[in-house]
Amino acid sequence: MPRISVKEQRRLQILEALNDCLLTTSFSQTSIKDIARRANVNHGVLHYYFKSKDDILLNYIDFIIDKYLAIFYKWISVASKKYTRHDVFIEESLKFINKKVTLDRNISIIFIEIWEISLYNNKVRQKLKQMYKIWEQTVTDEFTKVVKDKKEAKRLSIAMIAFFEGISLLSIVCKDKEYDWKDILDNFNRLVLKTFF
After folding, report:
1. Which of 34, 69, 143, 164 is the most buried (most CB within 10 A)?
2. Confidence of residue 16 (pLDDT cuts 50, 70, 90)
3. Domain range list for the chain
């Protein structure tokens, strides 16, 4: 495994600090000094690594995309050998995504904030569109192994991503015990598998 440079370590430290800030404070209420404090660096140091607070956010979105894609691809490399039946592989993939992303409270809180920012910030909106295109292609690639019609696989991928993002949002907004989100997702997954696979 290649060694990470001090500069890259410091950049990651700052991005992780923004992550921590966004769990408790909105981006608009988070200052450069807050991020620096969480990163345990002088706030002047942040400008050496990033142009602005918005630049930190844009790099953070790239960081999250890379982090979750790496987790997913690592899981796929193991799961594709473990689950040789396509329907079982798809079922286990959906469970994995729901556990690691959809029902991850922290990432949901942060992305609600990023979605809001994207309403008014075109650069953030473009980053989110890029992220969703990557996820769409990743999911479509897996579905086309089972669903032979590529257009149908793509539509299914988009619909599932939208559904999972909606559940992610609702699980934060309706955080009481009124809904069993895992059960709702499990039932949805069963319906998808029964309908398409």
Report:
1. 143
2. very high
3. 1-50, 54-196
